[in-house]
Amino acid sequence: MSRQDKQILRRIAEVLVAVLFVGWFLFWPLNYYIETPGTADNLKSYVTVKGHPDKKKGSYMITSVYLQQARPATYVWAHFDPHATIENASDVTGGQSSATYNKVQNFYMKSAINEAIAVAYKAAHQEYTKQYLGIYVLEVEKQSKFKNDLKVGDTITEVNGRHFNTAQGYQKYIAKQKVGQNLTIAYLHNGKRHQTTHKLIKIMGDRAGIGILLTDNVKIHTKIPIKVNPGQLGGPSGGLMFSLQIYQQVSGEDLRHGRKIAGTGTIAPDGSVGEIGGIDKKVIAAHKAGATIFFAPYVKPTKTILKYEEGHKTNYQLAKETAKKYAPGIEVVPVKSFNDAVKYLRTHQ
User: Fold this and answer.
1) I need a surface site. Which of 17, 67, 199, 273 has the fewest CB within 10 A?
2) How much is the average pLDDT of 279-307?
3) Is the distance from CB of 38 to CB of 236 less than 8 angstroms?
4) Are strands 260-263 and 293-297 parallel, antiparallel or unpaired?
5) Do residues 157 and 188 make contact, with C-beta atoms less than 8 angstroms apart?
6) pLDDT digits (tens, 9 = 90+) for 11-32
7) How far apart are alpha carbons 33 and 26 in whole angstroms?
8) CA–CA separation, 307 vs 293, rounded Å?
9) What is the C-alpha separation between 73 and 96, in angstroms, rounded?
10) Backbone conformation region of residue 257, classed left if phi is above 0, alpha if psi is from -120 to 50, else beta
11) What string of DSSP letters covers 8-76?
12) Angle 35-41-44 from CA coordinates, rounded to 5°
């Protein structure tokens, strides 16, 4: 082989190595996720209440965090972006696959919407009823005897032929059984009913259990028809803002007075607002969208609570700090409940 041929081969090899490196640097998935500010979307386009259109000025905005799997290039970039944080994949997904994680997040959003409808309709003195469907399976433990039948996303509707109207009802009944005893469950998988029988395992000391992580699966029926389409958004953190949007439409009371109002927080059946993750990024998203008010969940910052909080700051503390530094012009308002948010809007116009 001539010297010239060797040089050509060397150059080809160098180009191939360079191409492979660039491909790896740009596209190779790492075991990390990067969180950055998402969007603040007008909820008018998400909520449709028959006979009650929202024609008032201003907007309630649902805020989000943009989550992407890190690549070498974005991993390096994230270290220089003050608004980006890098998280271990297991901390984000809990070790679940992307498909399972997304399914759980979609359910959390569906559940948040249902609770928001109930809270808003109750506050507006409009008729609604709750139908308890059963217990929604969020995770199946490896040691569970039901692991080959139950899947994340299934809903258990009966145990030994009995249906209860709360998760606590199911848990109390199962706890009265003995470890190793057979239990027959009926459950819905992709809308179809199934039944299976397996032995109970030991959970939480000596208690008998199925071996699953669960939550309530509730459906809301309303006299005034309502449709809520969250699009690609998932998770429970939009509960408060959905409840405000729905309340304004079904009650006819204009609480916005032309303002752009953003916020975040889960909503419970009693109207209480719970903390969420990524509130600093949501404040920035709200600021970019022109919001002047941002509702933040409030809890009293005790030493015990701060020990486990993100950055050792409560949602309200972190939101307030972020607004002061990156979002001038936004008033961060602490709220413990839906009623707190309504009261603030009524008294601050």
Assistant:
1) 17
2) 96
3) no
4) parallel
5) yes
6) 999 999 999 999 999 999 999 9
7) 15
8) 28
9) 25
10) left
11) HHHHHHHHHHHHHHHHHHHHPPPSEEEEEEEEEEEGGGTEEETT----SSSEEEEEEEEEEE--HHHHH
12) 155
